[in-house]
Amino acid sequence: MRFGRKPCLQVTERDVAEIRQFFQLIKTVIQSDKERYRKEIIHTLFTAVFYLITELNQREQSSEQKQVLFDQFMQLLGEYNKRERNVSFYARQLNITPKYLSSVVKEVSGKTAAKWIDESVILEAKSLLKYSGMSIQEIAYHLNFSTQSFFGKYFKQHTGTSPSRYKRKG
Fold first, then answer.
1. For 152-164, what is each residue's pLDDT tens digit?
2. Phi (first) and psi of residue 152, to 5 degrees
3. Residue pair 105/112 in contact by the 8 Å Cβ criterion
């Protein structure tokens, strides 16, 4: 059993109650007048406690692993958001399925991977529209959209306004 970077486990009241029941049972067996299999029974009960604690530890490690995966996704997103808008791309980079990536990202952050990608692209587009001095055509090309029209539709779908109107307001 490895406890990783955290030597303390997060446990619920129910987890504590279950562990206490095992130790109460061990105490009862120790105080019992039945001696023939006492050692084996106690050993088995301690083994059960060990498995219970191992389960708690794995639950926490799984949570940590999901956070690491989310952090890796966010790092990739920062690196590739100008070129890639597909969850499958990021999943391939992480050697996992798109469905698993989306479920982990949703569990950790409350938003899907696709939502993070869209928000990142739109944030980049808004910044370019407002501060770069680039034309909408250049921005569409810079963000790897096939056409200016497709960029315009994508931008309007996510912001409710056209890129040209956003740029004029800016």
1. 999 999 999 999 9
2. -60, -45
3. yes
